[in-house]
UniProtKB/TrEMBL annotation:
<feature type="transmembrane region" description="Helical">
    <location>
        <begin position="36"/>
        <end position="54"/>
    </location>
</feature>
<protein>
    <recommendedName>
        <fullName>Acyl esterase</fullName>
    </recommendedName>
</protein>
<dbReference type="InterPro" id="IPR017195">
    <property type="entry name" value="ABC_thiamin-permease_prd"/>
</dbReference>
<keyword id="KW-1133">Transmembrane helix</keyword>
<keyword id="KW-0472">Membrane</keyword>
<feature type="transmembrane region" description="Helical">
    <location>
        <begin position="66"/>
        <end position="87"/>
    </location>
</feature>
<feature type="transmembrane region" description="Helical">
    <location>
        <begin position="117"/>
        <end position="136"/>
    </location>
</feature>
<keyword id="KW-0812">Transmembrane</keyword>
<feature type="transmembrane region" description="Helical">
    <location>
        <begin position="93"/>
        <end position="110"/>
    </location>
</feature>
<feature type="transmembrane region" description="Helical">
    <location>
        <begin position="148"/>
        <end position="172"/>
    </location>
</feature>
<dbReference type="Pfam" id="PF09819">
    <property type="entry name" value="ABC_cobalt"/>
</dbReference>
C-alpha cells in the first residue's frame, strides 16, 4: 500500500486559495511598481514587500513544511497569468522568498512559529532585494538621506507585509480554516 501523502488535499487547497488571492495582489503590485518607481521611487520597497505575503499567511495558518514554497509558486503562477512577460521575475521571487521562509521554519524543525521568525525572514528578504535594486536603480543618485530612506523602506516593506500576513493568518485560524487543514 502506498504511504499517505504528507500534505492533505485540504492543505493543498488552502495553499491554492491563499496563492490565488496573494497572486492577484502581487499582479496588482507589479502593475503599480513601474509608476511608483518612476513617480515616487523612495516608496518602491513598500510595494515590493507584498511578495512575502503568500508564505507568511500559509505558514502562520497551516504550520506545516512546504506550505510557504507551494503557496508562493501558486501565487507566482497567478501573477504570471496576468503579466506573462514577468513569469521569470515572479517565479524567481517565489523560489527565493519561499525557500528562505521554509529554511527559517526548518531551523525550528517546523515546531516553533514565533512571530519573530517571520519578521527575521522579512528583514532578510528586504536586504536580499535591496542589494541588487541598489545597483539596478542607481540609488547612489539620491542624496544620502534618500539612500537611507530607500534602503530602509526596502527592509520595512516586507516587515509591514509580514505583520499583515500574520494578522490574516490569525483571522483565518479564528474562522476555523486551519482546523480542517492541519492534518
Amino acid at each position: 500500500m502506498a504511504s499517505a501523502s504528507r500534505l492533505s488535499t485540504s492543505v493543498l487547497l488552502t495553499c491554492a486559495a491563499i496563492g490565488v488571492a496573494t497572486g492577484a495582489l502581487s499582479a496588482g503590485a507589479g502593475a503599480i511598481s513601474g509608476p511608483v518607481s518612476a513617480a515616487v521611487p523612495l516608496v518602491y520597497g513598500l510595494v515590493l514587500g507584498v511578495h512575502v505575503l503568500p508564505g507568511v499567511i500559509a505558514q502562520d495558518l497551516l504550520r506545516r513544511p512546504w506550505v510557504a514554497l507551494i503557496t508562493h509558486l501558486i501565487a507566482a503562477l497567478v501573477a504570471s497569468a496576468v503579466v506573462p512577460l514577468w513569469i521569470g521575475r515572479y517565479v524567481g521571487t517565489a523560489l527565493l522568498i519561499g525557500a528562505l521562509q521554509e529554511g527559517i521554519a526548518a531551523l525550528g524543525r517546523y515546531r516553533r512559529w514565533d512571530a519573530w521568525r517571520f519578521f527575521l525572514g522579512a528583514v532578510i528578504v528586504g536586504v536580499l532585494i535591496a542589494v541588487p535594486i541598489w545597483f539596478a536603480a542607481d540609488v547612489s543618485r539620491f542624496a544620502v538621506w534618500g539612500q537611507i530612506v530607500y534602503i530602509g523602506l526596502f527592509i520595512l516593506g516586507p516587515v509591514l507585509w509580514t505583520a499583515v500576513g500574520i494578522a490574516v493568518g490569525a483571522a483565518l485560524r479564528r474562522a476555523g480554516v486551519a482546523r480542517s487543514s492541519r492534518l
